[in-house]
Known about the structure:
The protein contains five helices and no strands. It has about 140 residues and is mostly helical.
Amino acid sequence: MAMNAFKNILIAIGAYYLSWWLVYPLGVGYRKIIGRVIYEGNFGYAVVMPVVTNLPLALVAFGAGLVVVLFVESKWPLSWALLPAAVYFYYAFTGHHWVNPPTSIDRISQTVDALVPAVACIGGGLVANHKRKNSVGVITS
């Protein structure tokens, strides 16, 4: 049991680590496409901009959640997708250096920035969990 847990932790953290090797090449091309887009207003700055700029990370996080659920050995494989999702969420809050004290709009933007990859990772886990249940022959209600 402990060996399975250790292996599952390695799979989850490994998927997170390898996702960053994919997101940088995707991000370079994607930034060239969206580099000159201007987001006006509080909603555009706080919600739309983090979603649009984090699209490559969200795609890779979706894949990481999918891989984790497909490869772990557990009764509840979806719960293991929460580990990389939590790591995505945590590290999105670190490394911000504000010139001026952040406003509430800045904090909302930072929170949406953290939620995008975490929710995408859980979404990938949900898709893989659904596929895994249907391939085993378990009847879902």
